[in-house]
Amino acid sequence: MRIYNTLTKRKEEFVPVEPGKVKMYVCGPTVYNFIHIGNARPMIVFDTVRRYFEYKGYDVNYVSNFTDVDDKIIKKAVEEGVGASVVSERYIAECRKDMEGMHIKPATKHPKATEEICGMLEMIATLIEKGYAYAASDGTVYFRTRKFKEYGKLSHKNLDDLRSGFREIKVTGAESKEDELDFVLWKPKKEGEPYWESPWCNGRPGWHIECSVMAKRYLGEEIDIHAGGEDLIFPHHENEIAQSEAANEKTFARYWMHNAFLNVDNRKMSKSLNNFFTVREISEKYDLQVLRFFMLSAHYRSPLNFSEELMEASKNALDRIRTAVGRLGELAESASDGETTQEEKEKRDEILAYAAKFEAAMEDDFNTADALAAIFEMVKFMNTRVSGEDTKTFITQAKEMIAKLCDVMGLVTEKKEELLDADIEAMITRRQQARKDRDFAKADAIRKELAEKGILLEDTREGVKWKRA
Ligand code: AMP
Ligand code: ZN
What we know:
Distance between the termini: 37 Å
Order of helices and strands: EEEHEHHHEEHEEHEHEEEHHEHHHHHHEE
Structural class: alpha/beta
Number of helices: 15
Oligomer: single chain
Bound molecules: adenosine monophosphate, zinc ion
């Protein structure tokens, strides 16, 4: 299996730290709002990477964090007049719902920054002890960037380029730094902000330290894959390498994988440009499987432009797969049992050749676009070459083969009547109205109808909450 490594700028053969195991860490979202579909790209891409490793028999330990302490979260909490954790917990719950909708497997562990402060204090203390960090007079702790000789190795920048870059931006707190390249590990609290006690000051961590600490705690000092969107290469991942390798004196991650941006009109989709769609908005219009298909229709290192046309094309393509699988299901039901024929054996070989093509695409740096193309060739073959004349066993195997490969992509092949979020919300509104009108029979009937479709309601003080069973 070959993976493009941002560190070496080459595709490299995958050799795990421990045979048969994959330890991967994917930087997760900062939880101050609903996630947008740009944030969904790394989630879908790296979930697919994970699924492929699992398909190949690897035992994958997949860790992805929630950044739940950050300026934006605090700002939102102040605006709402609630504690920061009210905001972060709300959006963690919403993010989990979106992930489920996109058929993203829960990580082995989803650590939260606020629950890992202890480990951060420890690593910062180690860095100070080793001379890689220092506390300024106001209690801010900085990483001594110049001391880490390999700084810049991931982003392929040299320190002088960085220095001139830094001059152009005004960095707050820069007054107390020894060097303008130094970055924050721990910073003093401001009035009204959440804080933790530390030997240096009451305060909170810088952003980068959390990932170094969580990766170490849940995966070990040396991991296989560290991943995220390409905007994280610098400074986030560069700083993570500096912290982890200075503290642990070991190579942090063997392979650094970065997805390209999801764009709108060729500009990065982002909250700050206000050109984003949340996953929740998309779910009102499309089955999120369509979004997943759309994301995988391009190679993860190619920019992908969001458009209605591409979403429609993805919807049709996914339909084609599902229709083919539905047809095979019907054929299998009415087909008779019997010995596998010679002709079937030959057809099976052809089907296996498409599966091999699928694997070859995935093993070439997870080329999901080519892998989907191989699935389509297989679908076409089955539409034309598998018929009611074939045995039940053969037809069933053919159907299962498509389903298995689609499952690696996180795509569900069974057509199911799934309610869209918007439909659910509308039914809940109707139920509320029925209750107001004291038409309890109607309200109950709506609850029952939702339950039959796998939607569970919970009446809480804050209103009705729902979840998919
Ligand atoms: P954030 O919450 O901004 O830290 O982002 C969480 C993840 O989403 C990171 O891996 C980002 O690199 C990624 N990300 C954010 N915007 C985009 C985008 N438009 N396209 C692809 N990835 C993105
Ligand atoms: Zn990170």
